Amino acid sequence: MSVPRLTWNGGEAGLQPLGAMIDGLRLRLPDGRMVTPLATAPWADDPALPGIMRRLRGEWPCVPFGSEDLVPLPARWPQPSGAAVAPHGHGSNHDWVVTQDGSGLHAVIDYPDTAPIHRLERLLQPDGAGVVMTLRVTPRRDCCLPIALHPVLRLPDTAGAARLDVGQHKAVWSHPQMPPADPCPLAPDHVSPALTQMRRADGGAIDLTRLPLEEAAECRVLIPDAEGHASLSHLQEDWKVTLDWDRADFPGLMLWVSNRGRAHAPWNSRHLALGVEPCRAAFDLGQTVSAAVNPLADVMPTVQTFHAGQVWESRYRIGVAPLTD
């Protein structure tokens, strides 16, 4: 697959057609080292895999966010519809048209005529040791949808060799769905005071700021009062990756700790990465749950209201810096 690329003094990056995912982002530290902050799934490019899974990597937008998997939720939650929808939206599973636009890369995709969204656009522009991303959503008709960004950060192999910093926060919600095939030590549907004090199912506590974890795990948590900034420090390599976004657009932050927990193919207990996902959604539970009365909606908006023909736009940045900054 041909991937349009940019090279500048501070780094290099591409946008692949599938999902308009960032591909091969490498950024330069002040000492000249080039580092790779984003993850690429270890199965790389298996043509037999469906949509989003085939070339899973980097970062991409999710409109709408989540899926409608018919896994029962606790009684206080509305139930998903079970509808067969593309996970994380049409744009995550289909090819975009990607072109070089001046000093940046531009990607566009039109949604099916039956969808409430008409078009997504995104622009990648170099910004020193980082990239600035612009997302534009053009709705076909008025609608309320859960939305998110989906950066997937690379983790080091050594347990505890990375430190996650999401800034000040008052609470962290554990996911209400705990698929039995995915081991997760967390107590489901629980509100903990901080990432450093997450309640375990066995009554103990676990620190989700020091990664990777010692144990195999596949966990999703959500911070409803995120600051709009997060960083992951690679302690042994003396650098960090930073993510900055507009908290007015994405008030929540969902974290996906993929710690070699999924044993089935194509994961095969080898996927080690951290999703740091600014969102306006009730986790990744899909449109039915996010648009209904749900527990999270009491503390943060879980859908974005779009108006027909009015372009909605948001900007965010991914960068790197030494730990001494």
Silhouette: globular
CATH topology call = Beta-galactosidase, Chain A, domain 5
Strands in their spatial order, largest beta sheet:
6-7-8-9-25-21-20-13-18
Oligomeric nature of the chains: single chain
Strand content: 35-45%
The mean pLDDT is 95
Give the number of domains. Answer: 1
Would you write up a description of this structure?
It is a single chain. Helices cover 4% and strands 39% of the residues. Strands 6-7-8-9-25-21-20-13-18 form a nine-stranded antiparallel beta sheet, with no helix packed on it. Strands 5, 11, 12, 14, 15, 19, 22 and 23 form an eight-stranded antiparallel beta sheet that branches. The chain has three helices and 25 strands. The mean pLDDT is 95. The chain has one domain: Distorted Sandwich (Beta-galactosidase, Chain A, domain 5), CATH 2.70.98. Strand 7 and strand 8 form a beta hairpin. The relative contact order is 0.19. The radius of gyration is 19 Å and the shape is globular. It starts with a strand and ends with a strand. It is mainly beta and 325 residues long.
Brief synopsis:
The chain has three helices and 25 strands. With 325 residues, it is mainly beta.
